[in-house]
Design brief:
Blueprint (H helix, E strand, L loop, with lengths): L28 H14 L7 E7 L5 E7 L2 E2 L4 E6 L3 H8 L2 E8 L4 E11 L2 H10 L2 H9 L9 H14 L12 E15 L7 E8 L2 E7 L2
Antiparallel strand pairs: 1-2, 1-5, 3-4, 4-7, 5-6, 6-7, 7-8, 8-9
Length: 217
């Protein structure tokens, strides 16, 4: 089979929008992350809270997918999903993960690694209530990551739920759905530079103290 292919090897662009120096960084990487995140929002980055979540199975096989960041605080970064999905079962077996934010409009990346723990049920309840009604019904109907017969089956089940909850907005959070908090152990801030000599500054937690180091690009 012949595949029509563009000139992938020739695709490149110059990164010349900024630089990152040690003196630019906050002492706390989560404070620094919030500053960069706010800039991404202010500059109109498309879905700045979209992040690649990478997990590992019990047998050591990695998998990645895009999820949405839904909270940032002094402890870490939070997101919500189905506990019985592939990522949920992998986090149950290996409660460590990596996150990657890529903001091409700013020529920036942020990489986060750390331990993951479940958020309290109260936090999951509060966030679930804040979601649009359709999203809440979707969480009820979808056996995320499992094989289904066809799209019609899923749409049919959703239609039944829509009829059941037509006259009420009181939709219970399913037990299989909730939140996770990634507790950072390492956070890298990447700023694109010319000639691929990018700036990479990484925070590493050592004895509960953050140390900043520069990495070769």
């Amino acid at each position: 089979m012949n595949l029509e292919q563009k000139d992938i090897a020739g695709m490149r662009m110059a990164y010349e929008m900024g630089q990152l120096n040690e003196g630019d960084l906050a002492e706390d990487p989560l404070v620094q992350f919030q500053q960069w995140f706010n800039e991404a929002v202010d500059k109109g980055v498309m879905e700045p809270n979209a992040m690649t979540l990478s997990t590992v199975s019990a047998s050591g096989k990695p998998s990645s997918r895009i999820v949405l960041l839904k909270q940032v605080d002094r402890l870490g970064l939070g997101f919500y999903t189905n506990y019985t999905s592939r990522k949920g079962t992998e986090l149950a077996a290996t409660p460590h993960a990596a996150l990657l934010f890529f903001w091409p409009e700013l020529q920036r990346q942020v990489r986060v690694e750390g331990k993951v723990e479940k958020l309290p049920a109260e936090a999951a309840d509060a966030y679930f209530r804040s979601r649009p009604k359709g999203s809440r019904l979707g969480a009820l109907v979808s056996p995320q990551s499992r094989e289904i017969a066809n799209r019609e089956e899923l749409d049919g089940q959703l239609h039944v739920l829509e009829e059941n909850y037509r006259d009420t907005d009181d939709i219970p959070r399913p037990e299989h759905w909730g939140g996770y908090l990634l507790l950072p152990e390492q956070i890298e801030f990447w700023q694109g530079r010319n000639n691929r000599l990018h700036d990479r500054l990484v925070y590493k937690k050592e004895n509960e103290v953050w140390r900043i180091a520069r990495l070769a690009p």
